[in-house]
Amino acid sequence: MDKSLKSVLCGGLAGATDVVLTFPTDYVKTQLQLDEKGDRKKYTGVFDCIKKTSKQYGVSGLYRGMSTLLYGSIPKTAVCFGSFEFFKAQLVDEGNTLSTFNSFVSGFGAGVVESVIVTTPMETMKVKLINDRRSEKPKFRGMFHAARIILQTEGFRGIYMGLTPTLMRQCSNHAIRFPIMETFKNYYRGDDPTRKPPKWMTAVFGCLAGASAVIANTPIDTLKTRMQGLEAAKYKSTWDCVQKIYQNEGKLAFYKGMVPRFIRLSLQAGVIFTVYDVYSEAIDKLDDKLKGNTINS
């Protein structure tokens, strides 16, 4: 199979696997980021959010909005890995090694492509669906109904709310994750470019890469969530959103939802990078088997 096609396919499969395993942590993170001070505050923390959601809607309530993320995560991760592999192919040295700086460039480029094509509309839909659950009278029956209503009332601008912070978040995510992964892998390979780390080690590398990205860009993620919620119209721009959150809620408000986000993205990166390798190796074995059958026939 063509290397580019394989990276897209494996990325899509890895993205779907990740969403099914880790979505509840993203649901809780989003709810806490949408929570404001005063009478509008609903939750005291992570466990309070889980308890109240499960009591009111059952455990399935923690998967509200997952269909949007699942539909979007397959192309999102496919585009991410496909883009990274494309940029990587242009920047590797003669020994097929990607330097830390070039890993940063490739990750940043993947973040731009992914944000514009998939992530911004997907995240906007997810946040609006979760935000709608907070209303006394929810108006969205599901993802496609929500998309139709938003397009009718707000046009494509409503689907692309928060593009700037989404770009900032995804570019920083991948500009941190991929260099860390490539650095660890290069260190493990040593002088043998064919040497691959065991799966448990890839998972650990992935968790460390994901955790590093969370620590660096949680404030950006909070801005993105606020600007994609149902009350996004009250923010004139990204900077206006920064000012209003700081003035009304203080600087710690930018780190709301960091605990569930830290758990989710650490797990997510560990799952995605590990599962990506598993699917990649499975496809390679299938290719070899098919080639062998062709030769024998």
Please give a handful of descriptors for the protein shown.
297 residues, mainly alpha, globular
Report the count of strand segments: 0
What spatial form do the alpha-carbon principal axes imply?
A: globular
Along the chain, the helix and strand elements come as HHHHHHHHHH
What's the Cα radius of gyration? 20 Å
> What's the N-to-C terminus distance?
20 Å
How much of the sequence is in beta strands? under 5%
Question: So how many helices?
Answer: 10
Helical content band: over 70%
Spans of at least 5 consecutive residues with low confidence: none
User: What is the residue-averaged pLDDT?
Assistant: 85
Largest sheet: none
* SS content category: mainly alpha
Describe the structure.
The protein is mainly α. The protein has ten helices and no strands. The chain has helices spanning 3-34, 46-57, 66-91, 100-133, 143-154, 156-159, 163-189, 199-228, 238-249, 258-296. Helix 1 (3-34) packs antiparallel against helix 10, helix 4 (100-133) crosses helix 7 (163-189) and helix 8 packs across helix 10. It is globular.
